Amino acid sequence: MLNTADILETISMIREENLDIRTITMGISLLDCATDDENRLCDNIYDKITKTAEKLVVTGENIEKEYGIPIINKRVAVTPVSFVGGHVSPEGYIKVAKALDRAASTLGINFIGGFGALVHKGMTKKDENLLSIIPDALAETKMVCSSVNVATTKAGINMDAVAKMGEIIKRAAYLTRDEQSIGCAKFVVFANVPEDNPFMAGAFHGVGEGEAVISVGVSGPGVVASAIKRAGHCNFSELADIIKKQAFKITRVGQLVAHEAARRLDIPFGIVDLSLAPTPAIGDSVAHILENMGLEKCGAHGTTAALALLNDAVKKGGVMASSHVGGLSGAFIPVSEDAGMIDAVATGALSIEKLEAMTAVCSVGLDMIVIPGDTPEAVICGIIADEISIGVANTKTTAVRVIPAYGKKVGETVNFGGLLGWAPVIRLNENSPAEFISRGGRIPAPIHSLKN
Amino acid sequence: MKAVITVTGKDAMGIIAKVSNQCAVSGANIIDISQSVLKDYFAMIMLVDIDKLTINFTDFVDQMSALGKASGLVIQTMHEEIFQAMHTI
After folding, report:
1. Domain assignment of residue A201, yes or no
2. CA–CA separation, A14 vs A10, rounded Å?
């Protein structure tokens, strides 16, 4: 039987602490769309997506209304496009990107992911064609997100691919210079990319997945931050327990929504991503959780320890609440999408080096960080190589989504609006890694990848 | 199936009557009511059976919400499963 306190707690989490479901993401396989004819490929892709996900948005809206829980995004992730490209020319891939954009627009979703490739060990001709036009595709579409996996713990790091990522990011920044280089906000470079991640910009439908699947990403940093604040000066064991309890409750809502969406759409349930995903709104910040734990400012020494505790407790609390857990699962630390992170960077408390250290103990990686517009390609490649190494060496996912905002310098700010938020341009180490990056080839897989 | 209706706002005469009447009109059977007035602030939690609703549940949610707006109250209707999911193992 329900009791009043439980009812009020749930309502207060939603109304005052910004508890929401961040995304219902439908994964759709495009493997059966493959053909050599560019126009037919585009038609096949458009038709498959719009037919399969026809009721995604209305179903999400109905669940939102019936359960009283905001569902912020409804999105689609597709098979990495390089798998269905066949002999498509670079220009053909731009047509495919536009077909994806049209499909997203028809469905009424705000992002569609999967315009990417998996090149962790090597690159096929198809991959090269696709990578060569990613910046143009990002500039010529609104809702298409792209991700490239450049490393795995098993394969090592494809440094040739890393070198290309620097080029892609710089060119995307240039081509979208009139919109604060927003193209880069839709592009992520991964190590050990999960094939069932529901969060953009890195979502895609893995090749080992079925025809279609429903996955859900939860949120709720405000719920955790408030609970910690209420608890006052408790010890670390108690702190971890408080986080676990809140993570359990948040994830149970995610599981309910995922299960219900899957049932109504008659599409199998995939996973719930146990995430704490912030937004720029006040009271929806991961940085503020860390500060509520007792740090003067996010970025202070002790931040990595606090984040490690948080991330671990979120997983432990969430894992029992869902029948299948996957995706990125952990606390996200994007800069521009988190009011506390923005403030910490603006006041100089949080540096990119500290952010890099933090990514060793949480999900994702260097996310939504605005860097100077004149940053050389090699420096961007160095940032990527470092971050990807953390993932490879620790058998975890890491990623890089940096924005070298065209014409912007340290001290200036860039505003993307909406959930992408705003951020001050962060200072970088300007020493050049160019010669290191230009060596080419692969960094071998670490010894602990040999587990068989 | 059941739903939880929460009503909050400044106290006035006839709030319960209005909400109950709307429930009856739409076929929602009231199972339990918990209500209090703190100073001038009215708060009510109502558990209703929605098996015999004469309209879609989503329309019922909208209708209750509109009644709230028209009466200067916040009326939220949520399927009970969200509370069960969050607070029971």
Report:
1. no
2. 6
